[in-house]
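Hi Q.,

Before the meeting this afternoon, I wanted you to have the magnesium ion prediction in hand. No need to reply - just skim if you have a minute. The sequence and ligand are here:
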Amino acid sequence: MSFVSKLFRRAATKYVGIDFGSYELKAVQFAPSTRGPVLEHVYRVSTPANSIKDGVVTDPQQVGEALRSLIADGAFTARRTVTAVSGPTVVVRQVTMPVMSERELRESTKYEAERFLPYAVEEAQIDAKILGKTEDGQNMDVLIVAAQKDLVTSQMSALQFGGLTPAVVEVEPFSMVRAMIAPDERQFEQNIAIINVGAASTSINITKGGFVPFTRNVPIGGNAITKAIANGLNVSLDDAEKMKREKAKILSQQDTGPVPPTVTRIFNVITPPLTELVTEIHKSLDYFRTRFRGETIEGVILGGGSSRLENLDAFLSHELGLPVVVANPLERGVYDPADFPADFIRDAGPSMIVAAGLARRDVENQSRSGAAA
Ligand SMILES: Nc1ncnc2c1ncn2[C@@H]1O[C@H](COP(=O)(O)OP(=O)(O)OP(=O)(O)O)[C@@H](O)[C@H]1O
Ligand SMILES: [Mg+2]
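Predicted structure with the ligand bound:
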């Protein structure tokens, strides 16, 4: 299975986009229509404990069973899937190589990838795509995408246990771009940071013009925040999770009113992991600005379940000196509010940033070409 393999194109074939999160398995299904993508199904189930680690499905059978419930309980009609691999072993690089044929490229890619892969090339699943010739006509820009084979094979195995058929596997950063930025939008031509704050990790990506010149994964996310509450307030992880959702708030100088003591205590204990996260984001944005001199980052799109931590958007905006918006990828489709009430869309939206992007793959083209269901 190739990351960039073409979908078997048949008008109005439906796919379910599935995000293998370590906290929740999430699925979205869009259908093409002349009015644009129509949101048909959204659902999520808890990921069985310790069954996904660093992007690898360590227990495919258990995850397969959870996928069965996800598809059945969410009443999904599609069985062909679009999924993404993510984690520290996923590498996306744009390189310049001499002009050559696709066949020659496949051979050379291995040697090229060897230079930057942090693991043996034999362990990697590698894909390359020619983006176009450089201005001098002698060279070409090539997108190389690689991931450890385990990531792909373990996911395939879980899908099989779940009774699903994999159609496409891509890499997570591209799904998020597709979920949030369309080619006819102003942001498409700007450098935008898309930050997905999940449970085990956070991915920091910078995109412009549909490309993703920078992507990085750091092992800090909602789990670190929950743990800090559990340790700091001496409560169980379950209680800490509940407190995080109901009481945690990032305080700022602007909070002049009275603050309940528990809120202040939670704020104090979650400050260290949040500071660590901001430091990593800062480092990433600074690296990008140094590597691509003259490029400025115009804004941040914040996704992932942890983006719902109260005031995380305002806090990051203040720390980074950039406008920050919380992603709502589900709003970027046509839907019936009777099926999807506003509070559902708002609550579930941010964590669906990957699944929604996966589900949109090919749907937009079909919508535009009128190959609607
Ligand atoms: N209202 C909320 N406030 C704060 N945190 C929340 C809220 N809702 C969910 N979270 C946190 O979001 C995290 C889950 O996010 P998400 O679904 O994006 O993770 P995931 O994709 O399963 O994990 P990963 O990508 O790290 O493998 C959990 O840590 C959860 O505690
Ligand atoms: Mg995730």
